[in-house]
Specification:
Number of domains: 1
Structural class: mainly alpha
Mean pLDDT: 83
Low-confidence stretches: 1-17
Order of helices and strands: HEHEHHEHEH
CATH class: Mainly Alpha
Number of helices: 6
Strand content: 5-15%
Strand order of the largest sheet: 1-4
Oligomer: single chain
Helix content: 55-70%
Radius of gyration: 17 Å
Shape: globular
CATH topology: Recoverin, domain 1
């Protein structure tokens, strides 16, 4: 019985740390994207600008190397890249990275993404990827 209680306590602590890690990763991602103005809202042009900056060879798409150079979580960068690469061509097109994500986050169509909407969207993606990665 003591072992079961200890195992449950460890599982609860692990889940809390895990949730904290996800929240930290999402927070860092938002701060990197909310660039001008830094107002707690993401606008389409901000995401477009960040995409253009990360496209270092200026070919209109992000290679895995370009994406990885700016990935918030190195442990999940491969899974995130594959998730966003919807046409599975090995590159992230602007439509995949900017248009699709912004439209998915901008639920009310006001051309702004609140911090809450961003957190909800990316937390769901990360949890989904972790669930699939861990084989659950």
């Amino acid at each position: 019985m003591k072992f079961l209680i200890l195992a449950l306590a460890v599982a609860v602590v692990s889940a809390q740390v895990h949730h904290h890690d996800i929240a930290q990763m999402v927070d860092q991602a938002f701060l990197r994207l909310d660039v001008n103005p830094k107002d707690g809202l993401l606008e389409f042009e901000e995401l477009n600008h960040v995409f253009t900056l990360r496209d270092t060879d200026k070919d209109g798409k992000l290679s895995y190397a370009e994406f990885s150079a700016h990935a918030v979580d190195n442990a999940m960068r491969h899974e995130l890249f594959n998730h966003f690469d919807t046409d599975k061509d090995g590159f992230l097109q602007k439509a995949e990275m900017v248009d699709n994500n912004f439209n998915a986050m901008d639920q009310n169509g006001d051309n702004e993404v609140s911090r809450h909407d961003f957190d909800h969207y990316y937390t769901n993606i990360i949890q989904h990827l972790l669930h699939n990665h861990n084989g659950r």
